[in-house]
């Protein structure tokens, strides 16, 4: 579909203005909840960081092991095929 400019830019702006609501200031409870949620997320991030690092190390070690086993297996299979023929 090709680009087609809006036929009346002023009409488009008026339509957007109709759907925008003025910003409502946060209540004290909402502000406290946002602060609390931010603190919980930061704490969880600090607590989970060692697990994430351990999982990355484990994944890297597993990838090396799989690569090594795959190359050994493929070499073994080639030898078996050569011996069979």
Strand content: under 5%
Strand segment count: 0
Uncertain stretches of 5 or more adjacent residues: none
One letter per element, helices H and strands E, the order comes to HH
Mean pLDDT: 81
Major beta sheet, specifics? none
- From the alpha carbons, calculate the radius of gyration and give it in angstroms: 30 Å
Termini separation: 60 Å
Structural class: mainly alpha
Helix proportion: over 70%
Q: Count of DSSP helices?
A: 2
- Shape category: flat
Protein name: Polyhydroxyalkanoate synthesis regulator protein
Region (Disordered): 1-29
Biased composition (Basic and acidic residues): 7-20
Organism: Streptomyces griseoviridis
């Amino acid at each position: 579909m090709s680009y087609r400019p809006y036929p009346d830019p002023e009409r488009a702006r008026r339509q957007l203005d109709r759907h925008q609501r003025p910003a409502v200031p946060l209540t004290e409870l909402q502000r406290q909840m946002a602060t609390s949620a931010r603190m919980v997320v930061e704490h969880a991030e600090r607590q989970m960081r060692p697990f994430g690092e351990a999982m990355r190390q484990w994944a890297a070690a597993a990838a090396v092991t799989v690569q090594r086993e795959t190359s050994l297996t493929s070499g073994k299979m080639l030898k078996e095929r050569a011996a069979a023929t």
